[in-house]
Write a structure and sequence with these properties.
The chain has 12 helices and 12 strands. It is of the alpha+beta class and 338 residues long. A hairpin with an 8-residue loop joins strand 2 (87-95) and strand 3 (104-111). The longest helix has 20 residues, at 254-273. The N and C termini lie far apart (49 Å).
Length: 338
C-alpha cells in the first residue's frame, strides 16, 4: 500500500464512497469555502461535496459490495476515519503547467478527525515520516520512491487537513496566515469561477494560458479552433437517479465555437456508426449534446441509472476477461520445422 497518506485519502474518496447524512465540519461551511485556503497562483481547482456524493444510491450500493466493503473496513482500520461520517468537503488546487510534471498540487480536506490518533496511524503506516516546521506550522513529510516528489501533510485546524507537494503546502500556509492572497484574488480564475454551478456534487474550473493554446494550434492544425480558449469548467451531479455531466470551453470567438461544435458532432456521428458492437456506448453517444454560443462551447449529457449499470457491467466484464485471458504461447521450434 502507498505510504503517501494524501493518496490513500484520495483513493478512498474515489473508490469507496459510502452513504451518510454527513454533517458539516467545523472548519468549513461549504465546499466553496475551501477555496480560501488555496493561493492566488492557483490556476486550476476541483471541488467535491463529499456529503452529497456519499449519499447517492450508487454509493450505497457500492459500499454493500463484498470487495468494496473489505476495502472500506481496511481504510477505517488504517486511518481511524470513517468516510461515511467524517469526510465532508474536498478541494484540489493546482499551480504551474497543468499538462506536465511542473504541476504543484494541494489537497484541502474538511473532515472530523482526532489528530493524535490519525498522526499515530500515519507514522505506523510510513515509519520514515519526517517532521519540519514552516512559519510555525509542523509539516509531516513522507518520502516517495522512484524519483517522485515527497508528500507533505499538515493539520491547519481541528477540521482542516492539507496535503500535497512542498511548494503547494507552503503556499497554503502562507495563504492561511494572510501572507499572500487567496485564489479569490486571481482575476483570471475568479472570473471563470463565477460561471460555475457550485451546487453540483463535483465542479471545477481551469484558466488556460493564451500561449498554451497558441502552441497547441501551431503544433496541430486541428487544434486551430481552440485558439482563444481561455478557460474550462466542468461539473458532475447526480439527479433523478442519473449522472449529469457538463464540460464547457470558454471562448469569446463565436465562429470558432461553432466550427469546433461542428467538428465534435462529426466525431460523435463517427463514433455512433462504429458502436454497433457496443450498444451501451451507442446509448451514451446518443445522450451527448454539443452546443455553441458567443461565449462558449458546451458538451453535456444526462445518463440514467440503468445505462450507468450497463456501463459498469461491461467494464467489469472486460476487466474479468483481461484477468482470465491466457497469454499466447510461443511457436515451438518443432512447429516451425513442420
Amino acid at each position: 500500500m502507498k505510504r503517501n497518506i494524501v493518496l490513500v485519502l484520495c483513493l478512498a474518496l474515489i473508490l469507496i464512497p459510502a452513504a451518510s447524512c454527513a454533517k458539516k465540519g467545523a472548519g468549513a461551511s461549504s465546499a466553496e469555502s475551501l477555496l480560501g485556503y488555496l493561493p492566488q497562483s492557483t490556476n486550476g481547482v476541483i471541488v467535491m461535496d463529499m456529503g452529497r456524493i456519499m449519499n447517492t444510491d450508487a454509493a450505497v450500493k457500492a459500499i454493500q459490495e463484498e470487495k468494496m466493503a473489505a476495502k472500506y473496513k481496511e481504510f477505517i482500520e488504517k486511518t481511524g476515519i470513517d468516510p461515511q461520517k467524517d469526510i465532508h468537503f474536498l478541494a484540489v488546487g493546482m499551480t504551474g503547467d497543468l499538462s506536465g510534471k511542473a504541476t504543484e498540487a494541494a489537497v484541502i480536506l474538511n473532515m472530523d478527525y482526532k489528530k493524535d490518533d490519525l498522526l499515530a496511524k500515519i507514522k505506523a503506516e510510513a515509519k520514515d515520516v519526517q517532521e519540519t516546521t514552516y512559519s510555525g506550522v509542523t509539516l509531516y513529510t513522507v518520502p516517495e520512491k522512484d524519483g517522485d516528489k515527497p508528500a507533505y501533510v499538515t493539520f491547519l485546524s481541528d477540521a482542516i487537513i492539507a496535503g500535497g507537494t512542498e511548494n503547494a503546502i507552503k503556499s497554503v500556509i502562507d495563504t492561511q496566515q494572510k501572507k499572500t492572497e487567496s485564489i479569490l484574488k486571481n482575476e483570471a480564475l475568479a472570473a471563470i469561477l463565477k460561471g460555475v454551478r457550485k451546487d453540483a456534487m463535483v465542479w471545477s474550473a481551469f484558466a488556460v494560458p493564451a500561449e498554451a493554446m497558441e502552441k497547441a494550434a501551431a503544433e496541430n492544425p486541428m487544434m486551430g479552433n481552440l485558439k482563444g480558449l481561455y478557460g474550462v469548467t466542468m461539473l458532475f451531479d447526480y439527479k433523478n437517479k442519473g449522472l449529469v455531466a457538463e464540460i464547457k470551453g470558454l471562448n469569446k470567438d463565436e465562429a470558432k465555437n461553432k466550427e469546433l461544435a461542428t467538428m465534435l458532432d462529426g466525431l460523435k456521428a463517427m463514433g455512433a456508426m462504429a458502436s454497433s458492437q457496443e450498444p451501451a456506448l451507442g446509448e451514451v453517444l446518443e445522450k451527448i449534446v454539443i452546443s455553441s454560443g458567443p461565449d462558449a462551447i458546451t458538451i453535456s449529457a444526462e445518463l440514467p441509472e440503468d445505462l450507468l449499470n450497463k456501463l459498469k457491467a461491461k467494464a467489469e466484464e472486460k476487466a474479468e476477461s483481461l484477468l482470465t485471458k491466457k497469454p499466447e504461447t510461443e511457436t515451438s521450434e518443432d512447429e516451425i520445422e513442420e
